[in-house]
Records
---
Amino acid sequence: MRTFACALLIGVAPLAARAEVAAADPIDAAMRTCLARSDMSSTAGQVQCMETARIGWKTALDNAWQQLQAELPPARRKQWQKSQASWQASRDAETQLLAAVFATTRGTMYVLAEADMQLQPVRDRALALRSAVAKTSAGGGDPAGRLRACRADARCEHAMFDLNRYYRRLQAKMPARSRPTLTRAQKAWTAYLNATTPLVDERGRIDIIGARVATLKRLSETVGND
């Protein structure tokens, strides 16, 4: 079980560049140590290791957010506040979606997978905010130039195609009673994307969409599994 959990946590992060930045982060190191402990080898123990890491990353997120607020000019601060509020709303809706999907599964591996999917978005957002703090402190907080429309960016258009494909697949496989939960989660995520796009460059937009594609793909491959 420890081998599975370690592979899950180390290999799932969708944003490789950010994962590399945080490879030596004390939160990740502590989590790996926790997962490897013989007294934490039960499912409950492994979930506890991940939950402790999630709490640690949430604290890191909050700290980075406070630092960013102190660095930003008022107009830019309002944009970031909108992004952060929409991210939190998306996470709240996503928690309900994860509960609905994993309620259709059975087995220890899915308990661990759900804990991991609660952790990773918090970690990713903390790293994104840390990056924004570093750029703002260095005088480079604004994205370079105006973003092209997604339909004019081949990578963005392809990513959105994949997103819609996996969304439809997940929708078709979910129990009918749970489909409104998926609709709400996707609507909240879209609001987050729209609020955050003005704050990132085209690569940053692809990162956000790519992470969502990975989530929907994973959930579509999970729902209904025994």
Note: The chain has one domain: 2-222.
---
Amino acid sequence: MGSHPQYDVFADEYLEHARDGFHNAHYDRPACLELLGDVAGRRVLDAACGPGLYAEELVARGAHVTGLDNSPRMIELCRHRVPSGEFRVHDLADRLDWLPDGSVDLVLFALALEYVDDRTSVLRELRRVLRPDGALVLSRQHPTGDWLRHGGSYFDVRVIEEVWSKGWRVRYWLAPLERTCEELREAGFLIERLVEPRPTARAAEVDPARYERLTREPTGFLAIRAVPDPRG
């Protein structure tokens, strides 16, 4: 994908969309926050933090949040939304040289893995900054849903370009589930939990048709909690 911040041009629209939107507020955020567990008093790195919606909830739950995103506008929105957090513009293609080894308790990496070119290197760097007893929670588009939408070989790792319903043009990687699992292994993680979320009960009131579909079809997201492999 390179270093161009794709979401920068529609960052404000994305905030309005994701704040109460079905997939974000009633589907991915609840799943990721549940996998993170009790964050009170813990240091959380929000990698690819977007406009700060996850960070806002983490701070409300007592976490100390550091966030990064390669979109300058997203970081402006974060700083306005979560003034107690620490946020900076950073491209995940570069090392997190401003974070020492083992300096955070938890890493959240929500819906951003598919925009990374060298995913193993990024995951390895996230492992470096995690404490040995820490955990990484990541979410990604469900690979089965990707394949149903785009066709071709499910096992091909390839780049897709599409225009979403609001006119946002995006490019991202498609990859099978086994590839994500292998990248985590290569980066030094063990998968503790893999969740195929269901929408919250409130989502049935927001969009009944979408709620019904996502409670029976693997066409949304999945979430993983991974821990550092103690074997090194």
Note: The chain has a mean pLDDT of 95.
---
Amino acid sequence: MEGSEEIVKKLRELLQQSEKRIREIPQEQLYVAVAVLIATFLFFLLIRLFKRTKSNTIILAGLSGSGKTLLFYQLRDGSSHQGTVTSMDPNEGTFVLHSESAKVGKIKPVHVIDVPGHSRLRTKLDEYLPQAAGLVFVVDALDFLPNCRGAAEYLYDILTKGSVVEKKIPVLILCNKTDKVTAHTKEFIRKQLEKELDKLRTSRTALSEADITNEFTLGVAGEPFSFPQCHNKVTVAESSGLTGEISHLEQFIREYVRP
């Protein structure tokens, strides 16, 4: 008991000394100290809130018939039966990737938006880009050559958008339907797209400023265009929505939407 009383006595003495020292500090200094503490608290609170609100949105874009909707359902359900019809409306959902559904523990869900590829509906893309953590541009590797120019024009518009360049939104060019024997390889598709984008860059920069609708130029002046010249990271990979071989797509998603 005597030991406890001694401890209490010492604590009281310390509190009295602390109160005395605080009273001796000028009020101006106290106000500054309190303001610094509040500012520090708010700073760390904002950092935590920013981390919590980091985007988990992945956008699927590309020409009609490239297989975007099929990939959407593979990601969500691991199924292909609902992706056989060309979608005229955006498919949108927040879910844990099907391949991760059996994992133990908390897994961050992904918000996936499949934007219709029809030219009249592509304006929808502008609504979603500000919230994108990454964009997947799906290319039909089976019927690539007849659609190469159209795919390049769509991709050119994406890569020169201010919302993509300024935010440095990563882009994955996903060569889909590679399970077919006659499908083109990702290396072939990459080279052909780079050539078409180079032609588009030359023709569009030749237009008068009044006719240019793109917000940023593409590539390095005087050099043949290649994807490493882009302001944002652009990678190329393969997939097969029909067989469910979408590992490269899932790796891209989890690189920018942490589980």
Note: The longest strand covers residues 132-140.
